[in-house]
Amino acid sequence: TFSKISSWLEECCTCHLSCERPTAIPLPSRVLDLSPPRKQRQIRLISGEGKRGQWVALSHAWGGFQPLRTTKETLAVHQAGIKWSELPPTFQDAVIITKTLGFKYLWIDSLCIIQNSPEDWDREAATMASVYGNAAITICAEAAANSQCGIFKSANNRRGIDVRLPANNRAWVLQESLLSPRVIIYTADQVKWSCRTAEKFERGREEGEGYLLGHRKLLRCWYDIVERYGPCNITKAEDRLPAIAGVAKRISALTGFSYLAGLWLEDIVQGLCWFSENGLPQTSSKYLGPTWSWVCM
After folding, report:
1. 168: number of CA atoms within 13 Å, CB side?
2. From which residue to which does any coiled coil extend (predicted)?
């Protein structure tokens, strides 16, 4: 599988005119350094300030808990080094994939954002689209319900793809996959590759059109995200609107469309045809958006 992924990456970087080749650019605020100078089985959380490089991002579902997080109390400890045994299986697998593909830096939200600092969370959430949009590759652990499941868990349990798998039910993951220029998706059935030029599958099926091509296809992606957005498991309630802000910004940049509180001016008639499958939407004491938009729910 790794050799196949490596060949997909090489083809994308050398042959796809619509896909930009990864280059050394300013790193995010924090990244995981997978090659510390002393201990091989240890990784470090480092500051990206003033540093340039290429990084891999992990897209994963939290599943209601997170056994390993960076907090104000653990920041210094993680900067000194995180032991391999402390990493949950999904994170260990992400490290293996990243190093096997030849990359040095890995970005994982729960470790690279100080989770109990509202100031840090607000600052980093605002740059989330840039982190995934500029990552060399994003690893999507689609079949993993949480960080304890591991990315490779489906290797010995092949079955059909369930569109309601854990990662698909979290709006952050939907955003991360759409924003990323290249995505390696570990489903319960196989490994899939998506870039701006092509989609490839471990079992040989290929589609010539990439997942970011065409205005109409982008709008279909948007409405698909909106349809799933209602039942999505947003770990932090305040993330409800920011969770897809990056997607809106990306679509606007690609199409020139005008964004109007969850709808698009150029497709406003279609956008206004939304309805709630569960009857009248629940009201909230907080203002979420205008009543003519689905964001008011």
Report:
1. 15
2. none
Contact criterion met (CB below 8 Å) for 81 and 36: yes
Amino acid in position 32 = L
Number of Cβ within a 10 Å radius of residue 61: 24
Is 283 within a domain?
no
Domain that holds residue 187: 2-213
Q: 175 in helix, strand or coil?
A: helix
E-strand stretches of 99-203: 105-107, 137-140, 182-186, 191-195, 199-201
Helix (H, G, I), strand (E, B) or coil at 167: helix
Q: Is 199 helix (H, G, I), strand (E, B) or coil?
A: strand
- Which residues face 186 on adjacent strands? 191
Phi-psi region of 164 (alpha: psi -120 to 50; beta: other; left: phi over 0): alpha
- 271 located within any domain: no
Residue-level pLDDT, tens digit, the chain, 297 residues: 888 999 999 999 999 988 888 899 999 999 999 986 555 667 999 999 999 999 999 988 777 666 689 999 999 999 999 999 999 999 999 999 999 999 999 999 999 999 999 889 878 877 888 899 999 999 988 777 778 888 886 444 544 333 344 555 555 556 677 788 999 988 877 898 988 888 888 876 544 444 444 677 778 778 877 776 554 555 555 565 666 777 788 788 878 899 998 899 999 999 999 887 766 656 566 777 788 988 777
Q: Do 75 and 115 contact (CB within 8 A), yes or no? A: no
For residue 30, the cross-strand partners are 47
Does residue 243 belong to any structural domain of this protein? no
Q: Evaluate whether residue 292 is within a structural domain.
A: no
For residue 55, which phi and psi values (nearest 5 degrees)? -135, 160
Per the CB < 8 A criterion, the answer to whether 68 and 149 are in contact is: no
| Number of domains the chain is built from | 1
pTM for the structure as a whole: 0.76
